Amino acid sequence: MLQAKNGEFMLDGKPFQVLSGAIHYFRTVPEYWEDRLRKLKALGLNTVETYVAWNVHEPKKGEFHFSDLADLEAFIETAQKLDLYVIVRPSPYICAEWEMGGLPAWLLAEGDMVLRSSHPAFLRHIEEYFNVLLPKIEKHLSKHGGPVIAMQIENEYGAYGNDQAYLEFFKGQYEKHGIDTFLFTSDGPVFIEQGSLPDVTTTLNFGSRVEEAFHTLEQYKPGSPKMVAEFWIGWFDHWGGEHHTRDPKDAASVFEDLMKINASLNVYMFHGGTNFGFMNGANHYDEYYPTITSYDYDSLLTESGDITQKYRDVKDVLRKYVDVPEDVENEIPTKSYGSVKLQESVSLFDTLQDISSVKEHLVPLSMEDAGQAYGLILYQTEVNRKGELTLDTEPIRDRAYVYINGKLEKTIYINDQEKTVQLHFPNEVNTLEILVENMGRANYGKHLTDKKGIIRNLWLGEQYWFDWKMHVIELDVLPSDYAGGKEERFPKFYQGTFVASECHDTFVDTEGFIKGNVFINGFNLGRYWNAMGPQRTLYVPGPLLKEKDNTITILELEGTTTEEITLVDQPKLG
Questions:
Q1: How far apart are CA 268 and CA 50, in angstroms?
Q2: Which of 69, 299, 342, 380 is the most buried (most CB within 10 A)?
Q3: For residue 204, which phi and psi values (nearest 5 degrees)?
Q4: Which residues contact 207 (CB under 8 A, 6 or more apart)?
Q5: pLDDT tens readout for residues 194-218
Q6: Over residues 40-56, mean pLDDT
Q7: Known catalytic residue: 110?
């Protein structure tokens, strides 16, 4: 069992240096878990760390998923097969640039909910979730011969709140479920006082300034073992920003600073992976910054699992301090499958009866209040006024397309400086439609309670408008019929088929398209936004492919200059 004693870690009574790397099982297809873990071990690390994303495992209240990408136990067992230890950082909150920091969207449908606090309703939901989750982890603890040697209490809580009763609640839950293992909290150095517990080991999260960070820890908790639970080896990207990179020599130099003082560490991220589907989060500070689909993170392995120069430089450092295994080769090839003609297309408006459910209400409902987590929601009402009317756009989250009598009039984005738009209604009675895209809920900070869609009734022409119809479009169902469509307006679905001999990894080059999502054989690869960048391709893991009859579906929201898509063998990022 792992313990902290006299300023160092002990495992089964012997001094132990935790050398860990972060891999999130839900960001990598299960067929590749062993590949990524073998490369982690070949670097010289002895432990893998993973978050647990609540919204992956309980996407709807009371509906639990623990298979495929969500098979936490299979991931732990794969690590044990390779003689790796495991650190688990369970929900409820993980940050991780993941949708709503891992919290399920359905929490926001409860009006009095206070997230990340000892509010009774929030604790009740966690307890009901933990009743399912924690027994799955408990059986893999080291006391049973399993690989799990440590678990975290909450996550970077000092950067959010000061509710000590909330943190104590987790200790009670762990005790209730027999989680008799090493426990810790983690925070940035300036936040450790509010995020720590007196009798639980405090660890740090940082990317540089090692001496300064551990000096802060020593001042707060003298004699604490030196552990950086997140050594930030790179950084994440947002739409409209640059692709972040960190010089490999610089990262390796700080890594060596940690090794010189025999600190324990967890490389964040060893392998970043992909925000498949709608699972990217967002940061919301001065404005809203949605995270891109790729979670490459400039990690030691690329998004598709390739070994980087940074990996090699860090391994050169490790060789000086520990015995490291022989080098491994990149074993997973990529392939270009060329151009795919998208021979079928249909407007989203012609498919609504197949891909959406309908709700009617006196006022617009937010996505959450309509029972929706992700995707798009279409609001419809009648405006029985003629002429120019001013619309207050502040309640719209995050990006919206405004149609009057079937014609696109305005595109609205949460970051628009001007929060009103002028709309012209030509008839005595007009149909107003507003199609809203949730681009990812905030995963950090004060905007964590981040409802989507239209979150309050709209003030249009100096009055509120009542009686709305809403089409909930989660995009868990795609169109089955592309024939007979009458609409020409976007959004549109495009579809084609292709052959993928050998089923190697590939990348969808979205040049010619503007904004939307790509699906391979029904699997949502994620978002693209070529007008913003920095991501220009979407990663397609080979296990998603078949040798024949692969279907590629694109939902293009805004427009396109082409009706074909290209599958290439290298990513375009930056």
A1: 10
A2: 299
A3: -115, 155
A4: 231, 232, 233, 254
A5: 999 999 999 999 999 999 999 999 9
A6: 98
A7: no
